[in-house]
Structure formats: C-alpha cells, structure tokens
Design brief:
CATH architecture of the largest domain: 3-Layer(aba) Sandwich
Keywords: Amino-acid biosynthesis, Aminotransferase, Pyridoxal phosphate, Transferase
Protein name: acetylornithine transaminase
CATH topology of the largest domain: Aspartate Aminotransferase, domain 2
Largest sheet: 7 strands, mixed
CATH superfamily of the largest domain: Type I PLP-dependent aspartate aminotransferase-like (Major domain)
Strand content: 15-25%
Distance between the termini: 76 Å
Family: Belongs to the class-III pyridoxal-phosphate-dependent aminotransferase family.
Pathway: Amino-acid biosynthesis; L-arginine biosynthesis; N(2)-acetyl-L-ornithine from L-glutamate: step 4/4
Number of domains: 2
Structural class: alpha/beta
Pfam families: Aminotran_3
CATH class of the largest domain: Alpha Beta
Number of helices: 15
Shape: globular
Strand order of the largest sheet: 4-12-11-10-7-5-6
Number of strands: 17
Length: 439
C-alpha cells in the first residue's frame, strides 16, 4: 500500500508539473520580459524594438510575419542584409544541402566552399586575393591590419618606429564597433566611452578633397571610405572626389580602402559600389548581404597588398566557414546576374522618382531625396524637416518597417527583390502620413 501511495503521489506531481508547463506554454510570448531578464542592455528598449508582442516568426520575399500572422512590408532588410529577401528557395536549398555535409573544419585544412567563393569573388571583381571573416567590423579590422602590414613594408620600418601608420576616414562614416573599426568611425556618441582608441586616425570632410589634402602625408597608410555613406544618411561620393582621392593615395603610397559592407553587392545597382566610379581601390570590404543573413565578412585586396602578408599575422576560427561560404556562393551568383542588377536599377529609380514626387507635393515635410549615382539603386534616403520618429511609428502601425539614419532621415534599403507594388504601398503610407501631419 505504501508503494502504491508513493506511485500515486509521483503521478500527481507529474500531472501538476505538466499542467504548469501547459499553462506556461499557453501564455503569450513577451519579448520584453526575456530581454530585461536575459539580454545585456545594448539596444534601446524604446521605439520599434519595444513594440510589445512584435516577434517575427517567418518571412517571404519582401514580407515578414509575426506570431499573430500579421504581414509586414520590410523596407530595411535587416539593415541591408536580406538582399534576396526572406525565404528564398535557392538560399534555403543551399543551406539544407550543404548543412548535411560539413558545417565546420579548421582553417588548418581545406574545404571546397570557401575556395569556390574566393574564386567567384576574384573572377567577378578587380581584386586578386580574399580573406574571409564573420562580419563587417571584422572585415574592416582585417583591412586595417593588412594596410599596416603593407605600410610597414613600403616604409621599410617597424610599427614602433611610426614611419607610416596613420589613417584617414570621413566624418559621418561608419566602419564598425571593434577597436580599429570603431576608431575609424566618426560618431563620438559610440566612441567616447572607449577612449583612448587606436592612435593615428584623422577625420576628413566627406566629398571635400581639400580637407583630405590637409591630413594626408607620407605617414598615411590608408584611407577608408564608404562610396555611399549609409549610417550617415545615404550620401554618395562625388565622382571627381573619388578620382582625386585615388590620385592622392597614389601620390603618398597610401591604400584606398572602400568599405562596401552596406552599399556593396547590388545595393547601388552595380555588383560593387566603386564600379560607379572611375577608380579601383586597393582593398574592399564586404559583409551584410553576402550570405543573405548568415554571418560572413570578406576583405578583397590587390596582389601588392596580399604580398605583404605572411602566415600567422592574421587569422580566424569561423571565417571561411564551409556552410556559410556555400550559401554565400549561391547568394553571390544570384545577385551578380545581369538581369537581377538591371531589376535593382529599375526598382531603385521607381522608388526615388516616387519619393521626389512626394518632395514636390510636400516641400514643408521633405527636404531632400538622396540616392547613389548611376542608373538607380535600392538605397535611398528621405530627409525630412522634422525628426522622423513619429513617421517610423506611423509606418509600423500600417505594418511597414522602416529605419532612420540620423534624426531627420529615413533610410530605405529593402530586399533587392522588392517589386513596384511594394514600393507603391510605401509611397502611399508616406503620402497619408504627410497629409495627416504625422510630422
């Protein structure tokens, strides 16, 4: 009888435990509770992130869906990451098929996918060698180190001698949050807590060659520039400025380094943003859309830079991951297709033209519409007369996802597969917002 009673008690405990589990499962998922309890506070809890209950579960094309099944039109693509959109079938098939094979081997051994991706990048660019990393900031950190190695060689000195170690980047630019990349980033708000940072970095005025002339010297190892400043508000470099910058770098044997983490890989309607200009950089960095949402970064470089690197001077555990590189090869092959890029140009022009019509209709609301040079790209800024927070909130209420780039500017970087119907919806939301004096 005692044994039977104990069994009954344990059975009741299991039932009670299961009941509590079912009750807990039945409660709606509240991301704010989890964030407050488990995540470090690196993101602002206010704004769209703080929209209680908004948890995205899946997506298709330019649409995202939340737990309630609501459809949201995505016009920021994870900040220019989801170039092929959400749920791309080729992306998914590549992930599944290659995931069955091998997910990681040490870089002490070869695997096929990173070698094939490196070949694909080199064959379709102006560069000779590739180094793989895991993110944009890692790519820029690598570019900084490779530039230092090249500078050491041409100056025939060591870093401690300080013959050639300085860098120039540009005000309102963004290059990342690790040590050198953060130093290169001209955004005091995110740098001031970590001072002092890497020495020898100077900030020039964007599109002002005289500003660069005052800073550059034979001590300059490299110049970092985004051909289109993203975080700064979608400001494209002027063609003449880029040509003169290339000439200045050549004069002082400094490397020209284009950060195309956000503006590269089809975003401007060209495979690489520097192709819009009559210049060839010495180094280019890539990341965001390269693997369509999986973490990857890449540093592409000329032979003259690569020849300054010796084994052991830089490395990575996860960079060149075979699974990620296989998926990236699928993404790259689709994005560099001529018809795909023509479609980006066409949709980009359609978007910019629509925004310019709104600017003409609402001159008291819209100050400027900015876009890359060239035929058109899906990278457009709408600068308004007032802070755009209320417009972002209004758009969210209409199930449209947009982000800012500065207090008064909306940055639009949708999936590269967005169509005219999607663009029309965005334009309609903006028009209604201006009519209702949301700003």
């Amino acid at each position: 009888m005692l044994t039977s009673a104990l069994r009954s008690a344990k059975s009741l405990q299991r039932v009670a435990g299961n009941s509590r589990a079912f009750a807990a499962a039945a409660k709606p998922f509240n991301p704010d509770t989890y964030e407050q309890k488990y995540l470090a506070k690196t993101y602002n809890p206010n704004g769209v992130r703080g929209e209680s209950g908004l948890v995205f579960t899946h997506g298709k094309g330019s649409k995202l869906y939340d737990e309630q099944g609501r459809e949201f039109l995505d016009f920021y693509a994870g900040i220019a990451v989801s170039g092929l959109g959400h749920g791309d079938e080729d992306w998914y098939n590549s992930l599944v098929e290659n995931g069955k094979k091998v997910t990681h081997v040490s870089n002490l051994f070869h695997s096929k996918a990173p070698l094939e991706l490196a070949k694909n990048l080199v064959d379709n660019s102006r560069f000779d060698k590739v180094f793989f990393a895991n993110s944009g900031t890692e790519a820029n950190e690598g570019a900084y180190k490779f530039a230092r190695l090249y500078a050491n060689r041409v100056s025939q000195g060591t870093p401690s001698e300080g013959k050639k170690f300085e860098f120039i980047s540009f005000k309102h630019g963004f290059h990342g949050r690790t040590a050198a990349a953060l130093t290169l980033t001209h955004k005091p708000k995110i740098r001031e807590a970590f001072m002092p940072l890497v020495p020898g970095v100077h900030y020039a005025e964007f599109n002002d060659i005289e500003s660069v002339k005052k800073l550059i010297s034979d001590k300059t190892a490299g110049v970092f520039i985004e051909p289109v400043q993203g975080e700064g508000g979608v400001y494209p470099a002027d063609p003449e400025f880029m040509r003169e910058l290339r000439a200045l770098c050549d004069k002082h044997d400094a490397l020209l380094i284009t950060d195309e983490v956000q503006c590269g890989l089809g975003r401007t309607g060209k495979l690489f943003a520097h192709e819009l200009y009559d210049v060839t950089p010495d180094i280019m960095t890539l990341a965001k859309p390269l693997a369509g949402g999986l973490p990857i970064g890449a540093v592409l470089m000329s032979n003259k830079v690569a020849s300054a690197i010796t084994p052991g001077q830089h490395g990575t555990t996860f960079g060149g991951n075979p699974l990620v590189c296989a998926v990236a090869n699928t993404v790259l092959t689709k994005i560099m297709d001529e018809e795909f890029l023509k479609n980006v140009q066409k949709r980009g022009k359609y978007l910019a033209d629509g925004l310019e019509k709104l600017q003409q209709k609402f001159p008291d609301k819209v100050v400027d519409v900015r876009k890359p040079i060239g035929k058109g790209g899906l990278f457009v800024a709408l600068e308004c007369t007032k802070p755009v927070g209320p417009l972002i909130e209004y758009a969210l209420s209409k199930q449209l996802l947009i982000i800012s780039a500065g207090e008064n500017t909306i940055r639009l970087c949708p999936p590269l597969v967005v169509d005219e119907k999607d663009i029309d919806k965005l334009l309609d939301v903006f028009e209604k917002a201006f009519e209702e004096d949301v700003l």
